[in-house]
Design brief:
Distance between the termini: 81 Å
Low-confidence stretches: none
Number of strands: 5
Structural class: alpha+beta
Number of helices: 3
Shape: rod-shaped
Number of domains: 2
Order of helices and strands: HHHEEEEE
Mean pLDDT: 76
Radius of gyration: 31 Å
Strand order of the largest sheet: 4-3-2-1-5
Helix content: 55-70%
Largest sheet: 5 strands, antiparallel
């Protein structure tokens, strides 16, 4: 390499010190935009489709899925706020500094922006993982559509199972222990939804 080329590279290296913070801020802008869009998209999906899916889950699975979604939303919101902090800095009263003070502030701010971006990306990744975890819980534990388990008390005992058919004359229940059972309405004392038949 020539001496002129070496000098130019040295100049660029010196200028890098002065352009580092604006470059980090530009990078943070991109993260902020991406995280805000992702958080909004996930919030809309959860609000529009989540309730229907979560209503079909057993109580424990519903609590786990809801906890995962709430935690994911908090993480994604935190990541967005950290990215905003990195992109725009913290509000400060006034910057009246000399050259050395400005240099120290710039170095400290660059370190804060780098740290905030690292935490923002971690929050983003963890938030997406938790949303996927909630979806997996919903897919794995959702009952088949159309299954309605009921507990029927008759004058001779209790039958618990899936409600297959109910008309004016009788109720048909598919029980795990007894198979398909047809009960006339005249023998039924009470009928109520069952959370889970053993």
């Amino acid at each position: 390499m020539s001496t002129r080329s070496d000098r130019r590279w040295a100049e660029l290296a010196r200028e890098l010190e002065f352009t580092r913070l604006p470059e980090l801020r530009r990078q943070a802008e991109g993260w902020r935009t991406g995280l805000t869009g992702l958080t909004a998209l996930l919030a809309v999906l959860v609000l529009l489709k989540g309730r229907d899916n979560l209503a079909d889950l057993p109580d424990t699975a519903r609590a786990i899925a809801t906890g995962l979604l709430v935690t994911a939303f908090v993480l994604l919101t935190t990541g967005s706020l950290l990215a905003v902090r990195a992109a725009h800095g913290a509000p400060e009263r006034e910057i009246l500094m000399g050259g050395q003070a400005l240099r120290r502030w710039t170095e400290q701010e660059a370190a804060r922006v780098t740290r905030a971006l690292a935490w923002a990306s971690l929050c983003c990744v963890l938030g997406v993982i938790l949303v996927v975890g909630a979806l997996v819980v919903a897919w794995v534990t959702t009952r088949a559509p159309g299954t309605h388990e009921v507990m029927v008390r008759t004058d001779t005992g209790v039958v618990c199972g899936e409600l297959v058919l109910a008309d004016r004359h009788y109720v048909e229940i598919s029980s795990r222990t007894s198979g398909k059972v047809s009960l006339p309405w005249t023998s039924i004392v009470s009928m109520a939804p069952a959370k889970m038949c053993s």
